[in-house]
Amino acid sequence: MEKEKTTGELIKLARKKAGLTQAELGEKLGITPAAISQFEKPNHCILLIWQVKN
Question: Is 47 a residue whose pLDDT tops 60?
Fold first, then answer.
C-alpha cells in the first residue's frame, strides 16, 4: 500500500512534471523561489491566493 503524499510532495511532483524549477514556478505565481521551497517541505501549512488577470 502506497503512503499518502503530503501537499508539499504533490506540489513538487506537479512542478517537476511541468518541467519547472522552483524559480520558474515562483515567477509564474508571483512569489519567490524560497516560498516554493517552503511549500514543498513536509508538514508545511499552505495558503495560496491566486488572482486571475484578464
Answer: no
- Concatenated DSSP letters of 4-48: PPPHHHHHHHHHHHTT--HHHHHHHHTS-HHHHHHHHSTT-----
Residue with cell 511549500: 39
Q: What are 38's three cell numbers?
A: 517552503
What is the pTM (predicted TM-score) of this model?
0.72
Q: What is the mean pLDDT of residues 3-10?
A: 85
Among residues 5, 2, 17, 8, the alpha carbon closest in space to that of 40 is found at 8
* 17 burial level (CB within 10 Å; 0-12, 13-18, 19+): exposed
